[in-house]
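User: what does the whole thing look like in 3D?
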Amino acid sequence: MSENPSIIALLGNPNSGKSTLFNALTGKNQRVGNYAGVTVEVKSGETYTPHGKKLHVLDLPGCYSLRTDAGSPDEQIALDALTGKLDGIAKPDLVVCVVDASNLERHLQLVLQVIELGLPCVLALNMVDVAEKSGLRLDPAKLSEELGIPVVPMQANASKGIIELKQALRHPFPHASEVSWLTQTDNLETNRRAFVASLCELAARRPDSQQRNFTDRLDSILLHPFLGWVAFLAIMFILFWSIFSFASIPMDFIDSALGSFGEWVNAMMPEGDLRSLLVDGVIGGVGGVLVFLPQILLLFFFIGLLESSGYMSRAAFLMDHVMAKAGLSGKAFLPLFSSYACAIPGVMATRTIDSAKERLVTIFVAPWMSCSARLPVYFLIIPLLLHENEGTWKQALVLFCIYTLGTLTAFLAARILRGKLGPDKIVRHFMLELPPYRRPQWSYVFRHVLDRGWAFVRKAGTIILGLSILLWALKTYPKSDSTDPGEVLAHSAMGRIGELIEPVVKPLGFDGRTGTAILTSFAAREVFVSSIAIIFSVEETDDDVKNRSLIRAKMQTATWPDGRPLFTSMSLISLLVFFIYALQCLPTTAVVARESGSWKWAVGQFAFMSGFAYLASWLIFQTGSLLGF
Amino acid sequence: MTTRQPSQRQLTLNEVSLNCDVRISSLNGPACDRLRDLGFCEQMQLRKISNGRNLVCTVCGAKMAISRELAEQVLVDPIR
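Assistant: Here's the predicted 3D structure for the full assembly of 709 residues, as structure tokens:
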């Protein structure tokens, strides 16, 4: 026996419960969803046998087959991991084949392919509760006898059968089973299917008539050509409404807590650069990001709920028709939908898309789905445009038009780009498993939400922190003797940059001060509001609405040096259009680089979107000005 | 892999009426192997439960949504 821990690989069809079993065995928090293709890379963890021997556990991506011509990257990864061809991962000593007991005819095909590879194998007969409820008569002993491998009935989501499985993983491992279904003359695939059919006849007999279960009854509404859409729109409306309304309570709390903390630091420290750095740079900058945390957490909670319950694949099924108009499939719906809250999880969710080209296109257009960070900017500008106070139906209509414009442009760009990239080498038709509806696994949903929330704070927070300090330094140095914040800013490096870029932004209807505020918002869009406040010397208060109204009052009276008003209707529309299209979010660019595997793609996206935003704003402003608006 | 050619014209899965139980007689087209991986094997019983751009059917106790192009490659015999 070697000193290194033995390697156990978990393999099975998508949505057979591998990740749930992996979590139960290793105590890890691997993402679980009632949605095929949640695991997209090999994950590893450790567990112990009942005798205390350490085992290294690999969670392989779900696959339907181990055929090399299947073309799916997940299946290639799984095959490479099993044959020891994957870099840094040794060949497993034992494979635990996880199968859905209610679906053996399909899942056993993969088990036979693993046995054909000559690997020792244990069969984890998962979801026996679902199988029994559907009237299936299972005979695990017969199954074990026919296959020649240990079979462990279990229910991984309720941690039932885990101890029995660990017993089956004790040393010595079972030997590789004989391949009894292979004959010399016949086709291997045909033999395999015939063997599975006979096996199911013996050990997993289905009731003669198909019963209508809960999932069927619910699907008759949720997949209905008309009612399905009503339900879909209602669910999406509730989701958005909840994100915006429930999140405002903790957001206000975080905002006021950070404000009080800033005041406390202000009072405790002597006046100077260090205090300014901490209060204006660090607390102000990082706080600008932290304030969006509740929305991110709520979005992930709802996505977790929809995935875990089994609805997400129905939504993808319904939306396939709409997404096809943009040259995408239903699987692109979830990533684009997530991007309305934040493009970062949206870009990460593209991993479930099979086609590499479709995935790239989805990543490319995702930032055009208006994210929540743009909202503070919209809330500032729209009332100014309409000469109203905040909160009228006309403003809601403008906001709706802004969302629609972003979405339609994203779809149009996706269609053009999809056409340019050409068809996939392997034609991929839409195929999606619609899992049975299940009660959400709350523990996993909440652990996933916390995990994602922490990742957001850590990743976005570090980048924003660095940039906040940099922006603070640019705004502060070189110092001026004046006490007027506007003059201090004009004297600073940032002010000088503004002067420098004025010729560039003037064709869009902006002066150097607005240009400077836009420049600062390239780190994060919401920074625009606080930059405008600093530039136009607005005294900040604790109330956001009051703040914005004070800023608007200053903006309304701002003029060009010749006395013309600075913010006309056309320059405000031009500003809105710029914010709809520009990719002003460095964390998104970093995530795009990681997910697309290329900085070239990420930088290209940034340059294209910024260029497009500039051109669109220019076109709007110049056309409007020519027409006399 | 292409299996036996039907001697007379058979129904494809697209042509089957809703909620109708059928048995797969053969698969004919480039995506045969992929369809078999998904459970659409010869002699397997299935029920079509939704029509449209993509269709939904139950096969081997699982619900699968497949495109019409794939359904065109599944040749079936009605059970009743």
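In plain terms: The first strand of chain B starts at residue 11 and ends at 12. Chain B has two helices and six strands.
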